[in-house]
Design brief:
Number of helices: 2
Strand content: 35-45%
Order of helices and strands: HEEEEEEEEHEEEEEEEE
Distance between the termini: 29 Å
């Protein structure tokens, strides 16, 4: 798989990816496109997620698409929620290639209220659907280092389970992505010596 990443170009970095039927679907936090890479033909397709998308959006304007997960025949793409302009959800239909855009400001505000994660520290990095609930991984790379899993039930009841991750050279690790395999969650984490989300 590493060779695949070495041959991809056209975006700065992958913030999330999904493998589906010999295709990689990739999002980048500073791009308005969903990238579809065919592992058989090496063809890269750009699917616009927003109006007037750019491949490289300046940091202050980026929508910060950090989260992608598959639900049925759809890809669900979430912004991180780390700023007011980073509160969107895109549903991409894998059959029709159509997109549906939803503003999540109210939903993210509800998460902040019910989990006691501060507005400054909210920073979603991963998601998956498990037993009808949505699980969102909060990246604890703010001052309080609050890593955890936000559970959203079908009735939108919200709970938060804080998870302590190890330190590397005195720096706490924080979630960067996750995937569900059968009944187990596998996650990635990194240790960045920074107080910024």
């Amino acid at each position: 798989m590493l060779q695949v990443f070495l041959t991809l170009s056209g975006f700065s970095a992958a913030s999330g990816l999904v493998y589906h039927q010999k295709h990689l679907f990739v999002i980048a936090d500073n791009s308005g496109f969903l990238y579809q890479y065919n592992l058989k033909t090496n063809l890269l397709i750009h699917h616009p997620l927003i109006t007037n998308p750019q491949h490289f959006t300046p940091k202050q304007h980026k929508l910060d698409f950090e989260v992608i997960t598959k639900k049925g025949n759809e890809l669900h793409i979430f912004s991180s929620g780390s700023k007011k302009n980073r509160c969107q959800k895109i549903i991409f239909n894998l059959n029709s290639k159509e997109t549906q855009n939803t503003d999540l400001n109210n939903f993210y505000e509800k998460i902040i209220r019910e989990t006691k994660i501060s507005e400054e520290e909210l920073n979603l990095e991963g998601a998956l659907y498990y037993k009808r609930s949505l699980l969102l991984l909060q990246r604890g790379n703010g001052k309080k280092a609050k890593n955890g899993i936000i559970k959203v039930t079908p009735s939108e009841r919200i709970s938060f389970k804080q998870i302590n991750l190890p330190q590397i050279n005195g720096v706490s690790a924080s979630f960067t992505d996750a995937i569900l395999v059968k009944d187990k969650i596998y996650f990635l984490a990194s240790a960045e010596d920074s107080q910024s989300t």
